[in-house]
């Protein structure tokens, strides 16, 4: 059976044939690829083809697929029992490791996904401040909990409008939405509503509208503005955490968030999420404090084993310089080819994260990203797929270079890109 046949079969029993919408290829058209196995930078498909993977399971696989030490840690943990719903030593060790690698975090609570981490972070911020409202940025994705599935409404100073059916307006009324990189808009909202706002939540480097970096002063401005009005600052580092160094972006940039959410890399490919902060803030969580949060599989020993080994390898091997060099080689190559051929695009890149934006002008927020040529992105996606390269099947996503990629992989990508 090939991908097309599997997809037909799945569509009868799974809505849209997928367990997460972007996998349906609606952004690029065509039939989704069924993956069979992966090793390092390469995956094998149900079509009998081999692809060099630049999606990396949307971010967790910074060490590449099925890294031997991680697989070994997982099998050893699994053999000892899949779940206990009771405490295990490895949870304490893992929390110690996370807290030591992120000095801003005294305590960490483990959950099973990034969505759950952010949901908990927002509840915690509300519990700590006794306030209801939050401010988020257009184009930042924080998982699919009700009040974060929100797009900006017509007026900045009114609550947002949900971007999903089935979300209660009372949930999104609590949420202000500002354009990313627009500190003046934030200051305006906080000036009028600052005493009602529990938290400002942001992806410090945005990765869910393509790669958009914070402009100088933006995050510093958020830190100052939230401190001024008594709101907490939440850095959602589900993508950023351990991406550019063996710590958070917050630690690397010297900007201290009150609450940090983690996911993706910290699970090494297994389902995990985490909320971290100071002892004072984290003590509001049950059972120490009144903010409830729980999970049958929270701190699952198999997931924690994968995360533990992944963070240890990142700490000990620090592949970040290598990844940055490969990422830059890729982006520079794309930009050079685009210039030579007069293509209307540019490639944004930071470390292993990259996004070819199909317009020349820089992208500093969601409106800019939406102004890109999505048809041209779809052509690029299928061209690269036909040549053996898997990139995210949407123009609003970040692609990833991992520690398992080689210079030869990058050069092969560029050779194929040159034929676009
Ligand atoms: C992926 C992501 C999430 C959601 O994580 P899930 O594990 O998919 O629930 C939240 N925030 C950011 C910034 C993400 O990139």
From TrEMBL:
Transmembrane segments: none annotated. GO terms for molecular function: glutamate-1-semialdehyde 2,1-aminomutase activity; pyridoxal phosphate binding; transaminase activity. InterPro entries: 4pyrrol_synth_GluAld_NH2Trfase (IPR004639), Aminotrans_3 (IPR005814), Aminotrans_3_PPA_site (IPR049704), PyrdxlP-dep_Trfase (IPR015424), PyrdxlP-dep_Trfase_major (IPR015421), PyrdxlP-dep_Trfase_small (IPR015422). One of its GO terms (biological process) is protoporphyrinogen IX biosynthetic process. Its EC number is 5.4.3.8. It is found in: Cytoplasm. Its main location: cytoplasm. The modification N6-(pyridoxal phosphate)lysine is found at residue 264. Pathway: Porphyrin-containing compound metabolism; protoporphyrin-IX biosynthesis; 5-aminolevulinate from L-glutamyl-tRNA(Glu): step 2/2. CDD domains: OAT_like (cd00610). SUPFAM superfamilies: PLP-dependent transferases. One of its GO terms (cellular component) is cytoplasm. PANTHER family: GLUTAMATE-1-SEMIALDEHYDE 2,1-AMINOMUTASE, GLUTAMATE-1-SEMIALDEHYDE 2,1-AMINOMUTASE 1, CHLOROPLASTIC-RELATED. Homodimer. NCBIfam families: hemL (TIGR00713), PRK00062.1 (NF000818). This is Glutamate-1-semialdehyde 2,1-aminomutase. The lineage of its organism: Bacteria, Pseudomonadati, Kiritimatiellota, Kiritimatiellia, Kiritimatiellales. The gene is hemL.
């Amino acid at each position: 059976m090939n991908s097309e046949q599997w997809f037909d079969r799945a569509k009868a029993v799974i809505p849209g044939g997928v367990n997460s919408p972007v996998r349906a290829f609606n952004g690029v058209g065509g039939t989704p690829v069924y993956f069979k196995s992966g090793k390092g930078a390469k995956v094998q498909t149900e079509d009998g083809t081999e692809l060099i993977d630049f999606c990396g399971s949307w971010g967790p696989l910074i060490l590449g697929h099925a890294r031997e030490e991680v697989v070994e840690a997982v099998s050893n943990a699994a053999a000892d029992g899949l779940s206990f719903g009771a405490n295990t030593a490895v949870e304490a060790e893992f929390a110690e490791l996370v807290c030591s690698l992120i000095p801003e975090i005294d305590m960490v609570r483990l959950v099973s996904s990034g969505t759950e981490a952010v949901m908990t972070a927002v509840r915690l911020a509300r519990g700590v401040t006794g306030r209801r409202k939050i401010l988020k940025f257009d184009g930042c994705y924080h998982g699919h909990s009700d009040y974060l599935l929100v797009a900006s409404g017509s007026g900045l100073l009114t609550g947002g409008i949900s971007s999903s059916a089935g979300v209660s307006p009372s949930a999104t009324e609590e949420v202000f939405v500002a354009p990313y990189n627009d500190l003046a808009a934030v200051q305006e909202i906080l000036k009028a509503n600052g005493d009602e706002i529990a938290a400002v939540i942001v992806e410090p480097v945005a990765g869910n509208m393509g790669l958009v970096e914070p402009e100088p002063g933006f995050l510093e401005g958020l830190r100052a503005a939230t401190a001024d009005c008594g709101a907490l600052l939440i850095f959602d580092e589900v993508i950023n955490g351990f991406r550019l160094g063996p710590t958070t972006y917050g630690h690397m940039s010297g900007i201290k968030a009150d609450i940090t959410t983690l996911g993706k890399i910290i699970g090494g490919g297994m389902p995990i999420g985490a909320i971290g902060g100071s002892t004072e803030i984290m003590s509001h969580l049950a059972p120490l404090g009144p903010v409830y949060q729980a999970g049958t599989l929270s701190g699952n020993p198999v997931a924690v084993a994968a995360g533990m080994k992944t963070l240890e390898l990142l700490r000990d091997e620090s592949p970040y310089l290598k990844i940055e060099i490969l990422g830059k080689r890729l982006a520079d190559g794309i930009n050079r080819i685009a210039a030579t051929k007069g293509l209307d695009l540019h490639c944004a890149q930071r470390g292993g994260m990259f996004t070819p934006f199909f317009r020349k002008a820089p992208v500093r927020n969601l409106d800019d990203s939406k102004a890109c040529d999505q048809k041209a992105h779809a052509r690029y996606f299928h061209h690269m797929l036909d040549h053996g390269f898997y990139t995210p099947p949407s123009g609003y996503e970040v692609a990833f270079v991992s520690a398992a990629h080689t210079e030869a992989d990058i050069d092969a990508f560029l050779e194929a890109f040159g034929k676009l």
